[in-house]
Prior knowledge:
The complex is a heterodimer of chains A (about 325) and B (about 280).
Chain A: H1 3-13, H2 15-33, H3 37-62, H4 70-87, H5 92-114, H6 119-139, H7 141-144, E1 150-151, E2 157-158, E3 161-162, H8 166-188, H9 191-201, H10 203-208, H11 213-239, E4 241-242, H12 249-262, H13 267-283, H14 287-305, H15 310-332
Antiparallel strand pairs in A: 1-4, 2-3
Chain B: H1 2-32, H2 39-56, H3 61-84, H4 92-114, E1 130-132, E2 135-137, H5 139-161, H6 163-173, H7 175-180, H8 185-211, H9 217-232, H10 237-257, H11 263-277
Antiparallel strand pairs in B: 1-2
Helix pairs in contact in B: 1-5, 1-6, 1-8, 1-9, 1-10, 2-3, 2-4, 2-8, 2-9, 3-8, 5-6, 5-8, 9-10, 9-11, 10-11
Amino acid sequence: MTGKEKLLYFLYLHRTGLTVTVLSLALLLYPLYQSNPYTLGLSNLIAINVIVVLGLALFIGFAGQISLGHATFFGMGAYGSAITTVTFGLPPWPAMVLVATLVGLFAWIIGVPILRLSGHYLAMATLGMNFVFHTVLLQWDQVTGGPSGFAGIPLLTLGSFAFDDEVRLHYLLWGFALLFLLLCLNLVRSGVGRGLAALAGEETAAAALGVNTQVAKLKVFILSAVLAAIAGSLFAHTYSYISPDSFDIFVATDFVIMVVIGGMGSVWGVLFGTGTITLLPEWVDFFETYKDFVHGGILVLVLIFLPQGLVAGLVDMVRVRMVLRRQKYASDR
Amino acid sequence: MSDLLQFIFSGLTNGSIYALIALGFCVVNNTMGILNFIQVDFVTLGGMLMFTAVLSLSLPMIPGLLLAVVGVALVAMLVERFGLRPARSDNHLILVFITIGLSIILRGVIKLIWGKNRMAVPPLTPDHPVEIMGASVLPQALWILLLTLVAIALLSWFFYRTSLGLSMRAVASNPTAAAVVGIPAGRIRLTSYAIAGALGGLAGVLMTPITTLNYDVGVLLGLKGFAAAILGGFGSFPGAVIGGVILGLLESLSAGYLSSAYKDVVAFVVLLLVLFVRPKGLLGK
């Protein structure tokens, strides 16, 4: 191998690690260039959504299941943190761990029966679950504050260091997002992850090859629920105010749209899909009026023309082009 | 006693609506094997077209109703032809997500044309409650019961007496065999969407005078219709009707005797219970 080939091989071999390093550096330096709190607030919102969508992407893309109810777990995390810290006066960090554990338990209990379903049934059951949750948030107003929401949630602190401005929150939220991104990247390349990918491809074949499909699905479901709950807790502590509308079925479908645009089965696609959908309202002025067209249109067009997602679809197209060109080159000689 | 009768009447009224919507879900599921999320917006669209026909075009009630139902059926056919068919995919994950996307778009169109405000659709005949054995019933409720029966009768006639209906049943029971004997898939898909649209539209026209109308009124009604379809056994037509009626009764009885705050939750609790205990529903195969 020549030096150039060696270098390229090294880069190829460590592409995941290198991308993560570059991304972390970029995020580390970002607040130095961007000091506008509004823009930072937007990127912080992306970080929160990324955490939810990572879990959901594993569930949809790697376990091949549909969930239209992940706003439930997101909301449980948010309201859980709000209630434990404000009503019961627990400190935020232990409360967050406690809430995530409880949501994981809840996902386990509801997952055992719900995951026996598949396809449409699962989609509707999760949608139903989200609907019930949203109604409970609205109606049980002694605990949740009802339609007017829940205010006065404390900020997160480390000792006397409070995460009270956008720059500090940027490091906190993106720290969490990168941590979970690494976790998911490693998970999909482990034996468990390969089993899940097989499950998404063909459940019967995966079972025949020794993947315990029920247990695998349940594990991803619980993992995605816990991630959503942590994101919810962070959401509550970041904005110190939450209301039921942030956790309704339309939010749940938006999470799914983020997964689909990023590409079902692509961890990196999550960053792209979440970023795009979160930022769209900022790019398009007339967005408030045409929001539904843009969301629905993107979803339908991506699914019709690039069902593997925007990034993966475009990468595939380039790859096919390159292979075709190489073949043509070979046949010309 | 008259309380109970009152609850039963309101349960039957809502139940008929759920049954109509559930039938719409079943028709599409049987011929195309997908869950049609757009059904939800057909319901809204029915109410909206009725609103325009009666109040803006000042048509009489019956032509207005026909216009609304036919209008929704046409829109449904357009949605199938230009929204769903180009996908040419057999991956149900993709197809379900496409119907979700189309439903979001259609809701956007409705929001754009008719706005976000709540509107009142006039009932078919003026609101003078009728006394039946001590329960006071709105004439609209009687219309709902009557027209639901008419719709079910028409559907049975269509599926058992016309050649198009028979071919649709053939596709439902074995798509491959149906294709082998030369039943055109495209026409069947279009027809099933038209029927689903007409049923959803009819439900919307009949129900919106009672619930009031806005751009997402169909979401809740549609989801409950789906719950009814599951309860009866997804894909079974008698199951859809029975499921709708049972769901309507459970809902109005629990609202009457337990708590009305959680009335809308009943359908989903039932849905989840059925899915856990007997996922194929009451009459499912």
